[in-house]
Amino acid sequence: MPALAGEYGLVVATARMLLSAGYETTSTLIANGILALLSHPEHLPALRRQPDLIKPAIEELLRFIGPGIVNLRYANKDLRLGEVLIHEGQKVVLDLDAANADPRVFGDDLDLNPHRDAIAHVRFGHGIHHCIGAPLARLEGQVAIGTIIQRFPELRLDRSQSDIHFRDDTFLRILKNLPISVHA
User: How far apart are CA 53 and CA 142, in angstroms?
Assistant: First the structure.
């Protein structure tokens, strides 16, 4: 019977992790995406006129200001990256913002551009470490952000950007507040 309790505990722990990871990162994608669009309002008219642009816009928002900041991995073998030797078992911190600002992949102009082909971003990881919830997060972002910008054409930041703060978190970029004005 203890083995069954252990397996049950593992299932419950996994379900809790998936729920919290799926909720917090997706709600952060939506909030950060709205902040980015309201901070660059010149892009809103095109997104309102052409709702199909929300799909590539979500990829660009993930690249530009996605929820994940870093990922941790452990090297499974010795590896040389340029001048640096990473030893098997050594912890590696992957800077997702730096990877998503690589001019070799995304060009020299890294400002927000909802028309950019940003599908090569690594905000959801890559390869065997790709987020299992990525398709659902993308869809939720498309529906939520697309609906908000269509339904509230007068949506505006209610304060200056200096009044907007993020939680102190190593792994996720989570807004403490998002002061907006909404006029239906």
Answer: 10
- The CA–CA distances, whole Å, from 82 to 79, 94, 103, 122 equal 10, 15, 18, 20
Q: Place 4 in a pLDDT band, splitting at 50, 70 and 90.
A: low
Range of the domain at 17: 2-67+99-181
Q: d(Cα 113, Cα 118) in Å, to the nearest integer?
A: 9
Number of domains composing the chain: 1
What digits encode the pLDDT tens for the residues 24-44?
899 999 999 999 999 999 999
Task: Write the DSSP string, the chain.
Answer: -HHHHHHHHHHHHHHHHHHHHHHHHHHHHHHHHHHHHHHSGGGHHHHHH-GGGHHHHHHHHHHHH-SB-EEEEE-SS-EEETTEEEPTT-EEEEEHHHHTT-HHHH-S--S--TTS--TT--TT--GGGS-TTHHHHHHHHHHHHHHHHHH-TT-EESS-GGG--B---SSB--BS---EE---
Give tens-digit pLDDT for 125-183.
988 888 888 999 999 999 999 999 999 999 999 877 778 999 999 999 999 999 999 87
We report the CATH number of the domain holding residue 31 as: 1.10.630.10
